[in-house]
Predict the 3D structure of the following.
Amino acid sequence: MTVAELRAETRATARARLRDLALEAARTATLEHGWSAVRMGSVAAAIGASRQTLHTEFGTRDNLGHALVMREVTMFLDGVAQRLAAHPGDLAGAVFDAATFALQVAAANPLLQTALSAADTGGDSLLPSLTTRSEPLLRRGDELVGNWVRSQWPDGNPDDIRIMVDTVVRLVVSHAIAPTVAPETAAGDIAHVACRCFDSQAQPFLISERE
């Protein structure tokens, strides 16, 4: 490794550390006071950095909030991947298990619940990161689920897979944002839809069969 490469690696490590500290400080402040009370200056002060440093890293306060929500989402994507992997060749079981896990985590996660709560909605909210700015979340979900499906059914029709995966991911996000039934019930419906979209590879899902 050259001196220039070592310096670049040191800068990258320091930047990642700064980012983690800032997001953790913003998370703590959001849980204690709500996102509307969080300011770039107070987050910077909490980690011993300048406000300009924080703006250089995140750009705007909205971007900081978006990064905060996306970090929270990332924390349970590994769990979704594990649950898909636990059901090789079983589309219904994999989607049911992964969707149940995702919806249960979303319901129990305090930051996501703060983002979704009525008290923290409106013009100054974290909610857009899950709705109008949800494209990165949907893209990552599509990639995760799509890669698993293609690994299980490499000869599957690409259009069928694309439609099924996008539908499943969007339904999970929708149920997380506006839950109307228990996670297991919603997951059963989502698994049923997945099988209908991709019925050449799986039988229709019945939640009673899993109980």
